[in-house]
Structure prediction request, 68 residues.
Amino acid sequence: MQKKLYRSEEQRMLAGVCGGLAEYFDLDVTIVRLALAFIIFFTGIFPGLIFYILAAVIIPAKSGRRLD
Prediction:
């Protein structure tokens, strides 16, 4: 069975991007969130924030519900 990347419905704080990445790579969601916070802080906020926003728009939700 092929794994697919989805935004998480269970492990979401904002859009579920970090939860979806954690489920896909079988990691703890806290580690993924800390890594994203580290990236956002050390890249001057905008590159990491733009990545998160783009990922929230591009990655489909697990239930098929769209982020509006």
